[in-house]
């Protein structure tokens, strides 16, 4: 006696695929945020410059809310040690730019000493990293 194919039990994998796709999307969105070691809340910009392109990768200096300095996740204990590192980098590649990622809660007075010393070293292209666009009145 032959059994029909319709009476066999089967597993519906559609719900499993749906759950896996939702998890994949969640991890794709959250993973870049989790990969950043030193959290810095950047100020936001309303009109970014779409034509800004750089020939060399700039040196990225982060200043956290508590005033610590980082270059590529490497901490620097004081402004003088950071400046000595920037001086050696500047001697190796004089055309590199400096990108400053300072926490949005810092006042300009806390950032100004780094800007002064970096300009004295010869960094002409010092830029500020900002977050995503926002509308006027948003924080």
Task: Report what the structure shows.
The protein has 139 residues and is an alpha/beta fold. It has two domains: 5-35; 39-139, Nucleotidyltransferase, domain 5, CATH 3.30.420.270. It is 36% helix and 14% strand. A five-stranded mixed sheet has the order 3-2-1-4-5. Helix 2 (79-92) packs parallel to helix 3 (108-121). The chain is elongated, with a radius of gyration of 24 Å. It starts with 13 loop residues before the first helix and ends in an 11-residue tail after the last strand. The mean pLDDT is 80.
Task: Give a summary of the structure in a few sentences.
By secondary structure, the protein is α/β, with parallel strands linked by helices. The protein is 36% helix and 14% strand. The protein folds into two domains: 5-35; 39-139, Nucleotidyltransferase, domain 5, CATH 3.30.420.
């Amino acid at each position: 006696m032959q059994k029909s194919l319709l009476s066999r039990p089967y597993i519906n994998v559609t719900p499993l695929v749906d759950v896996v796709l939702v998890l994949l999307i969640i991890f794709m969105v959250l993973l870049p945020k989790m990969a950043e070691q030193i959290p810095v809340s950047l100020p936001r910009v309303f009109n970014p410059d779409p034509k800004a392109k750089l020939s060399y990768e700039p040196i990225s200096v982060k200043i956290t809310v508590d005033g610590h300095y980082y270059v590529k996740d490497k901490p620097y204990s004081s402004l003088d040690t950071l400046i000595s590192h920037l001086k050696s980098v500047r001697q190796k590649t004089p055309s590199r730019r400096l990108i400053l990622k300072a926490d949005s809660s810092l006042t300009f007075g806390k950032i100004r000493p780094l800007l002064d010393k970096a300009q004295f070293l010869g960094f002409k292209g010092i830029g500020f990293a900002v977050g995503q666009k926002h509308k006027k009145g948003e924080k």
